[in-house]
Amino acid sequence: MSCGPLEGPGRASAGLRVYFLDVGQGDACLMRTPGNRWFLYDIGNKSEYLIAFLKSVRADTLDAAFISHPDLDHFGAFPALLREITIKKVYLPPATNPSPAWLEVLAVLDAYRGVKDTLFAGDTLILDEGVRVRTLWPFPHSGLAGNDVSTVLRVEYRTRRLLLTGDIEEEAERGILASGVRPQGDILKVAHHGSRTSNGLPFLAAVAPRWAVISCDSAVYGHPHAEAVADLALILGDSTRILRTDREGTVGFEMDERGIRRIEP
Ligand SMILES: [Zn+2]
C-alpha cells in the first residue's frame, strides 16, 4: 500500500477514482471507473457545488446515482442534479420520508425516463470491467427505520475496497457483523458524519480501514464527535489518515493494483 504524492486530474489513469465532495453537512461520493464511467453515492444538499464539480471533471452522464437513505443531507440536491446531468439509473433506499423535499424527489422521479431500482444485502453490481459493488445492508423487511436502513455498499476494484456506509448506526453495524460478511474496506466513508452513535469499535475493527473520510460541517451538529475520532485513530494507528471534508475540502483518491494514492480534486 503506497501513499504517493498528490497527482492532478489530467494524469492518464487506469485506476478507480473516488471523490468525497465538500458538500458541508452531508454526503456525496463521486466515483470514476477505469473505463470512464461515473457513479454517485449520495447527492448531498449543495447543488451548485455538486454540479460545478461534475462539470469540472467532465462527468456529463452518471451511469447511476445511489441515495443511501431519505435524509435531506444525502439527497437534497437530487432534483437540481437531474435537471442538469443525465442519470441512467437511480437506486432508491427501501425507506421513505414524509418531508416535502423527499416528496419532491418522488415527484421528479415520476417523470424520470431512466431505470429505478433498490438494492438489498447480497445484491451485486458490475459497474465496469473489474469494478464490482456488493450490497452489505439492509436486508429486506428488516423492520428498521431511519439511519439504520441506509444502503451500505462495498465497491471493489482488483484488491482494493471502498466501504460506503451512509448514516448507519450501531444496530445496522451489529446486523452487518452478524450477517457473516466481513465488511473490510481500505477506505471507509465514516458513517453518519462521525457521530458517536455510529462507528462502534467492533465494526471499525472488522472494517480495518487504511484511510477514513468524514464528510461533515462541524458547525451544524458538532460532527464528528471526539469519541468516534478517537476510536478511528485507535484502529488506524495514525490520525493523519482521518480526513475531514470540513478541513480538507473535497478529498480524492485513486485506487489500483499499485496501491491507494490521494489525488488533487
Ligand atoms: Zn447524514
Supply the key terms.
265 residues, alpha/beta, Metallo-beta-lactamase, Chain A, eight-stranded mixed β-sheet, seven-stranded mixed β-sheet, 17 strands, 25% helix, globular, disordered N terminus, binds zinc ion
Could you explain how this protein is built, in words?
The structure is a single chain. With 265 residues, the chain is an alpha/beta fold. The chain has a single domain (16-263), classed as Metallo-beta-lactamase, Chain A, CATH 3.60.15.10. It contains 9 helices and 17 strands. The protein has helices at residues 47-56, 72-75, 78-84, 100-110, 170-178, 201-207, 218-221, 226-236, 245-248; strands at 16-20, 29-32, 38-41, 61-62, 64-66, 86-87, 89-91, 115-117, 124-128, 131-137, 152-157, 160-164, 187-189, 211-214, 242-244, 251-256, 259-263. The protein has an 8-stranded mixed sheet, with no helix packed on it. β9 and β10 (131-137) form a beta hairpin. The longest helix is centred in the middle third of the chain and has 11 residues, at 100-110. It is globular. The protein starts with 15 loop residues before the first strand and ends with a strand. Residues 27, 71, 73-74, 167, 192-193 line the site of zinc ion.
